[in-house]
Predict the structure.
Amino acid sequence: MRVRAVRALALCAGLVPGAAPAQDTAATAAATVEQPRSFGHVLGDVLTQRVLLEHAGRPLTPRSLPTAARVDLWFERRPARVETDAQGRRWLVLDYQLMNAPRALSAVALPALRLASRSGPTLALPAWPVSIAPLTPAQAFGTGDLQPLRPDRPIAPLPTAAIERQAWLALAALLGVLLAWMAWCVWRNTWEARRLPFAQAWRALRRIDDPA
């Protein structure tokens, strides 16, 4: 009895040769992933991963979807969503947007991810390497017309003859209105100075000397 008990303890501890340790080997499974293109990405591009929510022909339901967050220096993950294809299969869609531009052609990777399910194994997504490139070279070639700076492009002048003509016509009309208003003011003041009673009295008083 004592030998059997010792052997059972050894089997549980994994000390007997040929006996596997007590662990859950089916807890994690490789996910079926449709990966984005691995090359030719620049600042602002969106890289999309599609993860099949199935294992061994059985559908899986994630416990929670990956949250939108900045994942590293290069990528930001947008809100995840679940889509159904024409065959009725459900896919988890993960969008990663490139947020920085490298100085030279570089190799980076979309992050690895573990997706826990409610009634099945955890799906493991490996890191996916991609190449990213700058929008423009750090230095221009410096030959021919390929220079660091280009001169200002001359702009063809717009035709302004019609605009100038309209401006002169408007100015002449304004000047005519001002002259007419001034002439009317002079004529009105002269006419009223002759016919209004107080103006006539003032002219009469001015003709009388001081003693009178």
